[in-house]
């Protein structure tokens, strides 16, 4: 999608969402982009807001 936008706006850059994340697969908490370095994916990561909202099963 960013490549198509750059055809019309050459200086356009992708928006990177930085936040505190919690990986539901390995239970790793991290800050930055939605990419868990333990699992090497962002598919299991959810934004972390408070400890109470994260359910440990």
TrEMBL record:
Domain (DUF3279): residue spans on this chain: 18-51
Organism encoding this protein: Escherichia coli 2-460-02_S1_C1
InterPro entries in the record: DUF3279 (IPR021696)
Listed name of the protein: DUF3279 domain-containing protein
Domain of life: Bacteria
Pfam families linked to this entry: Zn_ribbon_11
């Amino acid at each position: 999608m960013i490549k198509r936008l750059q055809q019309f706006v050459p200086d356009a850059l992708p928006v990177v969402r930085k936040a505190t994340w919690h990986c539901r697969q390995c239970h790793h908490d991290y800050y930055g982009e939605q990419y868990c370095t333990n699992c090497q994916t962002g598919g299991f990561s959810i934004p972390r807001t408070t400890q109470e909202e994260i359910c440990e099963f």
